[in-house]
Amino acid sequence: MEIIKIVITGGPCAGKSTAMDWIKRELSHMGYKSLFVPETASELIGGGVAPWTCGSNLEYQKCQVRLQLEKEEVFEQAAKTMAGDRILIVCDRGMLDNKTYMNDKEFGEVLEYLGKDEAELRNMYDAVFHLVTAAKGAEEFYTTSNNSARTESVEKAAALDDRLLSCWRGHPCLRVIDNSSDFEGKMRRLIAEITSFLRKTADHSDHNLPCGG
After folding, report:
1. E strands, 48-125, where?
2. In the chain, is it the N or the C terminus that has fewer CB atoms within a 10 Å radius of its CB?
3. By C-alpha distance, which of 120, 121, 110, 9 is closest to 61?
4. What are the CA-CA distances from residue 178 to residues 42, 44, 118 (Å)?
5. 6 CB contacts (<8 Å, ≥6 apart)?
6. pLDDT at 207
7. b/e per residue 149-170 (b: at least 16 CB within 10 A)
8. pLDDT above 70 as % of the chain
């Protein structure tokens, strides 16, 4: 059985939710069964657990990383029991996205809490696909109305996008999908990058090989 785990990340209003629908539809044609790990922050904030309701941002982040890690482990456990020889686990944001919302001291304490280092969190995933926020290059389409957990202005969304991307620098297979085309073109470029990666990994037993051009 081949189980591959990828991250779909990016700034606010980047198209992640739509991307999940595209991945489910398009990847089934390649023989992959796709499993989707929901974004943890939206779940917690929507349920009343947030940085501003917990005792501190650090205490909130500990809750978030614990739940996120456990969810991913559950999905991997379940995947191993499923029929089929190609399973793709798609994470709506990965563990290192959380670094964006902490200062260095907080992040260090979270790593200690998890008993892991930054490289371990980065290498949990076979590939990372960063969708650039609409606030960078498609400002007229930027909105906060479709996500109750999203409150950023265009300027803050662009800055957040930069910080999120910087957290994943160093991953051997990091792909950035910008707004150089219309939205459908953006989704098609994402699918092309994912399928290209999957074809390469199908030829190698080492999923962490650099996925060059």
Report:
1. 86-92
2. C
3. 110
4. 23, 28, 26
5. 88, 89, 90, 91, 125, 126, 127, 128, 129, 194, 197
6. 47
7. eeebebeebbbbbeebbebbee
8. 92
Tally of residues, the chain:
213
DSSP state of 29: T
Tokens matching residue 187: 């989704």
List pLDDT tens digits, range 60-99. Answer: 999 999 999 999 999 999 999 999 888 999 999 999 999 9
Q: Residue 6 — very low, low, confident or very high, per pLDDT cuts 50/70/90?
A: very high
**Mean pLDDT of the residues in the chain:** 91
**What residue type is 138 in one-letter code?**
A
Residue 75 backbone phi and psi in degrees, to 5: -65, -40
For the record, the structure tokens of 3 come out as 């189980």
Token pair of 71 as six digits: 């969810």
